[in-house]
Design goal:
about 160 residues, glutathione transferase activity (chains A, B, C), Microsomal glutathione S-transferase 1 (chains A, B, C), membrane (chains A, B, C), EC 2.5.1.18 (chains A, B, C), mainly alpha, transmembrane helix (chains A, B, C), homotrimer, about 75% helix, Four Helix Bundle (Hemerythrin (Met), subunit A)
Chain lengths: ~160, ~160, ~160
């Protein structure tokens, strides 16, 4: 048992994999924060998606009006979906990239740019900042993911 | 070749990784069931998203009315999206947590609570149960994921 | 350091894992293309989701009309969401399947069918092809994922 643990610990002790674990976790926690922001706005704006969510506001027609959309809630939800669309590729391609044996410095550069790009994207979406700030931050994360995908295919290609 | 296979089999023979593989697969199959429920409801309620989906109901205006939204279909779709938002972090953070060498009993506790929370969340969403049952099940899965993220960062942090 | 790298390279040198890395990367790049198609259509159709996205069209009411939905943009977005709903299970279950030590030929068959099914699904959604072409391609990817999940649970089950 302890031999197995040691073997796995070696895996996570690899610096590139530790860096991947760190930045993947940070970016996932950032994505999870979108749920809290959505919930906070739904409660403060009284804009809910389900009739059972408004039971505490009383029964009848006066409560029904709170099952509605709110512009700011929808904005956070678009940011959340954009996170899913971009962080899922990073999780998959980033893990394979980390296993492909890149230089530590190159790996750190990729992971740091992606993480910074997604944090900037979220702030630019929620404030919102004027374009093209949101567009450029999106493109930065996208380009870094494509760069890692290129190395995975170059290293591991087996069709 | 067989030496490599043996090495990989050792990896999956680790009990924590086997537990991760089991619960991750269960929770992903649960999420995939949402697609079947959506399809079932779209057909029985005649509420489709695309004009090509209603060709079997005939051409012309009488068929066009079936390209529409249905309250129950939208409810399942919200549950499905909530699954994506919460199961993606579990998949990524849970794998890194499993590689961080936790005690088997602690790992099983995390994986079981998450899986139970997401199954309860789905039932609470689809029946629906009165709140706060859905909210609490969502929070249970969320808290367990944050707990695993904390251990990953404590064990592997490499910025 | 080089010993660790060698160990990791062995992992990615396993043929089944290399095949997983290849097809997972291809299918993720395919999913990422949906973002580019959405952006292209939003610009050419002038159909944006946020008021800050239309600042280049001038201020005032004449620009506000471009914050709107477009049938073709919504179609691509439905295809993108369907990708997320199906590719996330493939990424998670496929990795665990690859670690479960399957025959190379069986693994290649699963990965190739899934990748082909998702490419056909996208083409069938965007052209669009008459049904049941989109439905069948969706079902093909779904069935292959369930088949891999069955093997993962049979090999690794630890409840």
């Amino acid at each position: 048992r302890s031999g197995e643990m040691a073997k796995l610990t070696q895996l996570i002790d690899n610096e590139v994999l530790r860096a991947y674990a760190t930045y993947a976790t940070i970016v996932l926690i950032k994505m999870m924060l979108m749920s809290l922001i959505t919930t906070y706005l739904r409660i403060t704006r009284k804009a809910f998606a389900n009739s059972e969510d408004i039971a505490s506001f009383g029964k009848g027609e006066s409560a029904k009006k709170y099952v509605r959309t709110d512009a700011d809630v929808e904005r956070v939800r678009r940011g959340h979906l954009n996170d899913l669309e971009n962080i899922v590729p990073f999780l998959g391609i980033g893990l394979l990239y980390a296993l492909s044996g890149p230089d530590l410095s190159a790996a750190l550069l990729h992971f740091r740019i992606f993480t910074a790009a997604r944090i900037i994207h979220t702030v630019a979406y929620l404030v919102p900042f004027p374009q093209p700030s949101r567009g450029l931050s999106w493109a930065g994360g996208y380009a870094v993911t494509i760069s890692m995908a290129y190395r995975v295919l170059k290293t591991a290609l087996y069709l």
